[in-house]
Design brief:
The protein is α/β, with parallel strands linked by helices. The chain contains eight helices and four strands. The longest helix has 25 residues, at 227-251. The relative contact order is 0.16.
Length: 252
């Protein structure tokens, strides 16, 4: 392994990865992010930033895992009315996931963990994971329960003392808090605006697009976010994910 003890696959040289595999590092974590609008105050790579952070922290916490480069872009057709968003069809995303997994399986990784961080990617990940698993020697572990993921984000806010909960999360308190915790310099504080709250139809968002409900691309109130809440959210998601992966690995 590198003297810097990086857990990020892309930062290592091939002999270091070979050495890691020989010394028991047999799990690799693949986040599945996006390049899409996140309101006027957050960067387009918010879901990718989140994926990078979650996979890296999970690998550190597990102690015998590496974090692969986050896959991007994702399935973001419902954000295409906002400039800069890049989307791919679900079939394309699933093919990329297959290629990632096949490559890493070839190198000897025995457990491949899929971590979607964008809502539109959870379905494709859940769909493709069983097909990939049938074709590989490695066990494929998808962490693709969207309702559970949203619950973990809301729980993180609550743990930080912020009683603010959303059923549909996008560019509001939770995601703004996450970026605050990762790199607050990426937030355009002067451009923070609230968006619609209350009963929002996910089906309408997907069929008619985000702009049919929110002109600025935001759902909820980003001003409720704090750095402490972002850290609590990340820790909550990492803890739950590592617990699930540990259980799945023990069962295989």
């Amino acid at each position: 392994m590198s003297s810097r003890r990086s857990v990020c696959l892309e930062e290592l040289a091939w002999p270091e990865i070979e050495s890691a595999l020989e010394n028991g590092t047999r799990t690799v974590i693949i986040a599945v992010g996006s390049i899409e609008q996140h309101g006027p105050h957050l960067p387009l790579n918010m879901d990718t930033l989140d994926g990078d952070e979650l996979s890296r922290r999970m690998a550190v916490e597990m102690g015998d895992a590496l974090a692969a480069p986050t896959i991007r872009p994702g399935c973001s057709g419902h954000h295409m009315e906002f400039p800069g968003t890049i989307t791919v069809p679900p079939e394309t995303l699933m093919d990329v996931i297959r290629s990632y997994c096949r490559s890493l399986d070839t190198h000897g990784f025995e457990h491949i963990v899929l971590v979607p961080t964008h809502g539109g990617n959870f379905g494709p990940v859940k769909t493709v994971a069983p097909d990939i698993a049938r074709d590989l020697e490695a066990a494929v572990i998808p962490l693709a329960d969207l309702d559970e993921h949203k619950q973990l984000l809301n729980e993180g806010l609550s743990k930080a003392g912020i009683e603010y909960e959303q059923d549909v999360i996008h560019a509001g308190a939770a995601e703004t808090a996450i970026v605050l915790a990762i790199d607050e310099g990426l937030i355009r504080t002067e451009a923070i605006e609230s968006g619609p709250e209350g009963d929002i139809s996910p089906a309408r968002l997907l069929s008619e697009g985000f702009k049919s409900i929110t002109e600025n691309g935001v759902l909820g109130d980003p001003t409720a976010a704090t750095t402490e809440a972002g850290e609590a959210i990340i820790e909550n998601v990492v803890e739950a994910n590592v617990k699930q992966v540990t259980a799945e690995r023990s069962a295989t």
